[in-house]
């Protein structure tokens, strides 16, 4: 059709427990388990000229939604330690994550707009799923982390990671109906 939903890049937040197998003072293998929260969005502004008889949105999107989805992830990464000091170090990390979100429920959504008589009309209906057909998928990841020594109990790692996935694990069908 004439109208297509738009989206912007979104962030992912995660927490987990990782184990580190040291090969030497600089190189190690990291593996573990994580819970990730990722957000999605979509939006669309239909020009007022295409909606004669309806109240103007003043340029704001008539269709807009943001959601948070959960996934579990199992990373396996190589880590290179650098800038080592007594209280910790920085690390450069790269590897793979096996991801799964088969427990995520489907989402049904709709949007209405008001005509000049304040009567509501449906302009959008959609059904979205984030479970990737209950199949796991791979992502490639790379990043940097600050690792702080916690006495002899291990390290606390806080990092910034970039993930790349070629799997479209969120899918959906939607209908946009412009009255008139």
Structure summarized in a few sentences:
This protein has 180 residues and is an all-beta fold. The chain has no helices and nine strands.
Structure description:
The protein is mainly beta and 180 residues long. 0% of the residues lie in helices and 62% in strands. It contains no helices and nine strands. It has a six-stranded antiparallel sheet, with no helix packed on it. Strands 5-6-9 form a three-stranded antiparallel sheet, with no helix packed on it. A hairpin with a 4-residue loop joins β1 (12-22) and β2 (27-44). The chain is elongated.
List the helices and strands and how they pair.
Elements: E1 12-22, E2 27-44, E3 63-85, E4 88-100, E5 107-114, E6 120-129, E7 137-149, E8 155-164, E9 171-176
Antiparallel strand pairs: 1-2, 2-3, 3-4, 4-7, 5-6, 6-9, 7-8
Tags for this model:
180 residues; mainly beta; 6-stranded antiparallel β-sheet; 3-stranded antiparallel β-sheet; 9 strands; 62% strand; elongated
Q: Strands of the largest sheet, in order across it? A: 1-2-3-4-7-8
Number of DSSP-assigned strands: 9
The amount of helix comes to: under 10%
- Look at the structure and give the mean pLDDT: 86
Separate helix tally? 0
Question: Biggest β-sheet: count, sense, barrel?
Answer: 6 strands, antiparallel
What overall form do the CA principal axes indicate? Answer: elongated
Beta-strand portion reads: over 45%
Distance between the termini: 15 Å
SSE class = mainly beta
| Element order: H for helix, E for strand | EEEEEEEEE
């Amino acid at each position: 059709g004439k109208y297509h939903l738009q989206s912007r890049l979104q962030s992912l937040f995660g927490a987990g427990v990782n184990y580190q197998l040291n090969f030497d003072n600089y190189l190690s293998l990291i593996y573990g388990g994580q819970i990730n929260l990722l957000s999605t969005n979509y939006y669309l502004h239909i020009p007022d000229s295409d909606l004669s008889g309806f109240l103007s949105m003043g340029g704001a999107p008539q269709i807009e939604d943001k959601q948070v989805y959960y996934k579990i992830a199992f990373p396996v990464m190589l880590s290179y330690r650098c800038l080592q000091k007594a209280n910790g170090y920085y690390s450069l990390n790269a590897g793979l994550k096996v991801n799964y979100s088969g427990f995520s429920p489907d989402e049904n959504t709709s949007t209405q707009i008001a005509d000049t008589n304040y009567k509501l009309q449906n302009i959008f209906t959609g059904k979205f799923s984030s479970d990737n057909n209950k199949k796991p998928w791979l992502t490639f990841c790379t990043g940097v982390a600050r690792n702080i020594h916690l006495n002899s109990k291990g390290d606390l790692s806080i990092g910034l990671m970039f993930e790349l996935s070629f799997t479209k694990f969120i899918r959906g069908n939607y209908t946009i109906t412009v009255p008139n």
